[in-house]
Amino acid sequence: ELDWLSLDCGGLTPDGLRALAATDWFNRVGALTLFNGLTGETFDALARASPLERLHALTVEYPWFPAEVWETFGRTKSLPALAALKIEGGDLGPGVLHLVAARGFALRDLALLRCATENRIGPALAASPWAGKLRRLTLDWCGLEPRGAHALLNCRAFGALRHLNLNTNDIGPSGLTALAANPALRGLRSLH
After folding, report:
1. Which of 65, 104, 169, 171 is most open to solvent, judged by the fewest CB atoms within 10 Å of its CB?
2. Whole-structure pTM value
3. Of 144, 141, 152, 142, residue with least CA distance to 178
4. Strand order in 136-140's β-sheet?
5. How far is it, in rounded angstroms, from Cα 62 to Cα 89?
6. DSSP string for residues in 158-186
């Protein structure tokens, strides 16, 4: 039984992904890493696939997708068990708003590493439907600025959050004040 699949996406087409998603063994994969040339069209095909009931962890490396692809992902019903999402590199831009508004899954672990978010991530995450379920949040080098950091760190829904990494962001004095004053963040075990 294959629990983890790391897939080099160079040359992987939407039809190829749909063919994979139709196989029994792919539907039993618990963790999937997509790297090296994943196109927006192929990622869109994943978001529209039949439900992958066991897929609980997804890593996407260097996605350069238009906002429409993130909008489809935000509406997906294909990943009902998804609990951990890691996106490494790329420019999420306005697509991050669709990503964190997703209702087809409830993340407990979100990692955005070196992702441009146009400083939208703070307020958007604070309003996310699954903010109260997050246990681990990593926003490493995501362009978070003081205003967005304040909105994020002032979020009262983060009561389950235990690990917070805001490395290489400018959270500023107002962000630090919000962090210190937010009772929902008193359960943190690690802060970076």
Report:
1. 104
2. 0.96
3. 152
4. 4-8, 31-35, 57-61, 84-88, 109-113, 136-140, 163-165, 190-191
5. 4
6. GGG--EEE-TT---HHHHHHHHHH-GGGT
